[in-house]
């Protein structure tokens, strides 16, 4: 009798949690990524995200050797602000810093805090190639990928708790097995491919930003080629990132789209027409 009672409360409770999760996911799913228009589940406000970025950035920089005032440090800043100007978002507090680290890597924290490691300077052979990686990081911030990952983690944790309540009340001996299986599933089945999706999206948005800021988008192909050569020496960038072949192929498609839009715009400009209400003319890309 008592056990049935627990089961009954457990079922009622889990229904309640399920309903709550559904509401959260529904509210969270109303976000859309720029350029790609992909639906996103983000369970935190913009200001919460900013505060999270600010805090993590201070922590990250306090442990790092920030290079200031050198030609390269200034290059990072000037390329960064040039792209940020195109983004035109006053709610982001952009910062671009060069950090002494041999790793061929860069990262961006929520709110627009970008860090480039000196290792990247070995593979980014010119300003356009450096703009590739900086625009990619800016794209992560714009598309709120950090907040999205945290939100996925929140739901994953919620599901694990829920699973334990359900299994624990019916078959306590299975709950350990569930946790192990779930842990592996969450890591390899949900979180990892999601990371790759975000990477591809950051590439796409980044290429548009680079283009808008006046950089040569074809240098992005050379940059990723250089990175793939550096891969043999071991690069953290590739742990969750798509393979460079896939990446280069995808970037070529984005460049083709940009070229097509450029040609169409040029044709419209050279063809006299009274129709000035073309929906794609003058439309911003993000
Ligand atoms: Zn990335």
Tell me about this structure.
The chain is an alpha+beta fold. It has one domain. The protein is built from nine helices and six strands; from the N terminus they run αββαβαβββαααααα. The protein has a four-stranded mixed beta sheet with strand order 3-4-6-5. Strand 5 and strand 6 (113-117) form a beta hairpin. The N and C termini lie far apart (60 Å). It binds zinc ion (ZN).
Core attributes:
binds zinc ion; 66% helix; 6 strands; four-stranded mixed beta sheet; globular; alpha+beta; disordered N terminus; 9 helices; 286 residues; two-stranded antiparallel ribbon
Short description:
This protein has helices at 2-28, 46-63, 71-87, 118-123, 127-142, 145-170, 175-212, 218-231, 244-270; strands spanning 31-32, 39-40, 66-67, 95-99, 106-109, 113-117. It is α+β, with helices and mostly antiparallel strands and 286 residues long. The protein binds zinc ion.
Write the layout of secondary structure elements.
Layout: H1 2-28, E1 31-32, E2 39-40, H2 46-63, E3 66-67, H3 71-87, E4 95-99, E5 106-109, E6 113-117, H4 118-123, H5 127-142, H6 145-170, H7 175-212, H8 218-231, H9 244-270
Parallel strand pairs: 4-6
Antiparallel strand pairs: 1-2, 3-4, 5-6
Residues 136, 140, 199, 202 line the site of zinc ion.
